[in-house]
Amino acid sequence: MKISVAMCTYNGARYLPEQLESIAAQTQLPYELIVCDDASADESVTIVENFAAGAPFPVQVHLNTTNLGSSKSFERAISLCAGDVIALCDQDDIWLSSKLARFAVEFARKFQVGMVFSDAEVVDEDLRPVGYSLWDKLNFGRDERERLLNGNGFDSLLQGATVTGATAAFRARFKSLLLPIPDDLPIIHDAWIALLIAGVSELVPLSERLVKYRQHAGQQVGALERKGIHYPHDSVHEALRRENPYAEMLATAQAVHRRLADKQKEFDSRRVLPALEARMIHLAARAGLPNARLSRASSVFSELLSGRYHRYSKGFRSALKDLLT
Q1: How far apart are CA 141 and CA 157, in angstroms?
Q2: Strand extents, DSSP E, the chain
Q3: Which range in 53-62, 143-152, 158-167 is most confidently predicted, on average pLDDT?
Q4: Phi, psi of 171 (to 5 degrees)
Q5: Separation CA 190–CA 88 (nearest Å)
Q6: Is residue 322 within 8 Å of residue 282, measured between CB atoms?
Q7: Looking at residue 97, what DSSP letter applies?
Q8: 192-240 pLDDT tens trace
Q9: Quick one: pLDDT band at residue 244, thresholds 50, 70, 90?
Q10: pLDDT band at 114 (very low <50, low <70, confident <90, very high)
Q11: Tally of helices (H runs) and strands (E runs) in the chain
Q12: Residue 61, SS3 per DSSP
């Protein structure tokens, strides 16, 4: 099995050498490393080029002429990968040496497995454990894992479970489904990728902590912030205090629905589309509630009677929130 590694760099010189060394130390070496640098102003490109000169596998370095942001940089890196499986890689973590080999076992076990992702040990900038794992911080518990293992990964992700790209790999055959990656949604590339693959395939969560997930001041999104797929820079509770989070959730659901529907001939998503469409009706109802409390009652009671508050939100608790806030 050929595993490509897709890495994006941006002013990552401080931690990049350790990440590159951990890739070179894999017990199953990658087929290739594709690096897209997003117009760094530090020594990131030089570090990668020096590593490439002695790496035990091919390394390609591609330079963005302007800063594209993480989602579009990963889009480019993914598009250039030639392997059977694509492992996403941040610039500031450390991979355990068994990571790629462990992933390969899961992909080889079953063709229907479309994505594999693991837990991670959260560490500080000096690689000292901070006392919890990534899944602990994201509240990705036993119930969410069971839903994924039972083939209900799409529902689990829509309900707020998170797949962190730095811990994930997916089959390259999904590139035509995933690309292009939108950059106008309240989610970033890894949430987009996980949602779409879960809509047409199986996701396998591995409880092993196969990554040292570094927390530091310069990273874009970290374990302290990532609590839900809809809001990469806020916790879910913080997001729900914003003016209209349901409109943003709806925009994400609509974009996922369009892509799945457009690619229906290549990737069978019939199993998930009806539930997604019902969720979109519910989100549209919540997003469109009038400001006046008394005027909301009719819409809220209608949604209660439909059962959608209980299927797609937190039942009476969510209905009461909509009536009173």
Answers
A1: 13
A2: 3-9, 32-37, 59-63, 85-89, 94-95, 113-123, 129-133, 168-171, 202-214
A3: 53-62
A4: -70, 135
A5: 9
A6: no
A7: T
A8: 999 999 999 999 999 999 999 999 776 555 444 443 333 333 333 343 3
A9: low
A10: very high
A11: 15, 9
A12: strand
* Spatial contact of 288 and 303, defined as CB atoms under 8 Å apart: no
Q: Where are the alpha helices (DSSP H) in 117-272?
A: 134-138, 142-149, 153-158, 175-178, 189-200, 236-240, 245-262
pLDDT in tens, 262-297: 999 999 999 999 999 999 999 999 999 998 888 899
- Would you state the pLDDT for residue 233? 33
Paired tokens of 128: 């000292």
Rounded to 5°, angle at Cα 280 from 274 and 285:
135
Sequence-separated (6 or more) residues with CB below 8 Å from residue 166: 88, 89, 90, 93, 120, 190, 211, 213
Structure tokens at 156: 């689990």
Cα gap 323→325, rounded to integer Å: 6
Cα dihedral 122, 127, 130, 135, rounded to 10, equals: 10
How many Cβ atoms are within 10 Å of 39's Cβ, its own excluded? 15
Place of tokens 């083939």: 151
**Mean predicted confidence (pLDDT) in 47-58:** 98
DSSP assigned state of 222: -
Q: Which residues contact 231 (CB under 8 A, 6 or more apart)?
A: 186, 238, 239, 245, 248
Question: Which tokens belong to 46?
Answer: 């030089």
The structure's pTM equals 0.90
Per DSSP, what are the bridge partners of residue 270?
none
Distances (CA, A) of 251 to 61, 70, 254, 260, 279: 34, 20, 5, 14, 12
Residue 88, φ and ψ in degrees, nearest 5? -80, 145
